[in-house]
Amino acid sequence: MATPPLPSVPASPEVIEIERALTRITYLSTRTRQHERLMALAGVPLDRAAVALLRQMADSEPLRPGELANRLGVEASHVTRQVQQLQKSGYVDRIPDPDDRRAQRIKLTRTGQEAVDRIRDAGARGMQLALDDWSPEELRQLASLFHRMVDDFLRHGEELIEQEKAASANLA
């Protein structure tokens, strides 16, 4: 599938600064040392891929492995391996798909939900310390703008997928 071209209009200086800030925060939050510290504080012995999967599952209904892979932007085989490991450790279970009994969905167990809760709590406490000098109003504004940005990213991504499907259908 061909990727649609980028817009011909250059990014504004503000958008360039937002992209730079997001790159920095992504780097800081995904460093191995940061992950290990967070897992130690949460008391959860999981790697980053497992945490991403558990967090995604905590924010949704039970999903098929392929749906999880799509939401995480990874290959289905990666999710299958992760789910097998998480199931062995008691963090997730497989349940029949109510729409297709031949298929299965993955759901968090109580242990999995407790792990996500501990990870989120440890992360939030660390963030609270870092943002301690911010006013409640500044924090509300930041949270609102972050949610709006994520929603816009998701909507834009869905629009790109629809454009790619339409382009593929026109080629067929």
UniProtKB/TrEMBL annotation:
The residues covered by the HTH marR-type domain are 15-151
> Matching InterPro entries, A to Z?
HTH_MarR-typ, MarR/SlyA-like, WH-like_DNA-bd_sf, WH_DNA-bd_sf
SUPFAM superfamilies, alphabetized: Winged helix' DNA-binding domain
Top-level taxon: Bacteria
Q: Which Pfam families does the record match to this protein?
A: MarR
Protein name, UniProt field = MarR family winged helix-turn-helix transcriptional regulator
